[in-house]
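Hi R.,

As promised on Friday, here is the backbone we talked about, encoded as structure tokens. Could you run it through your design pipeline when you get a chance and send me back a sequence?
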């Protein structure tokens, strides 16, 4: 996790969009390397200081962008 993950969110954009953007940066940097598995929703919510609902919506946004896939029972992985 980078030091910017707990940076304040700007008020003129949805929090989930900002979380998705920050996660996208981490994905592009190769931070999730090896397995490509993202941390769970609760862990990400804690990292970003948001609710699980915002993280869930951010994950859906990343799926829409083609950056991750979710495997039921296994987790969310980078593509």
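Update: got your reply. Pasting your designed sequence below so it's all in one thread:
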């Amino acid at each position: 996790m980078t030091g910017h993950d707990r940076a304040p969110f700007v008020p003129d954009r949805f929090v989930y969009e900002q979380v998705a953007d920050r996660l996208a940066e981490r994905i592009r940097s190769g931070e999730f390397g090896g397995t490509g598995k993202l941390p769970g929703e609760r862990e990400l919510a804690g990292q970003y200081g948001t609710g699980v609902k915002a993280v869930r919506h951010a994950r859906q946004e990343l799926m829409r962008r083609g950056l991750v896939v979710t495997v039921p029972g296994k987790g969310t992985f980078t593509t």
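One thing I noticed while checking it: The chain has one domain: 8-78.

Thanks again,
M.
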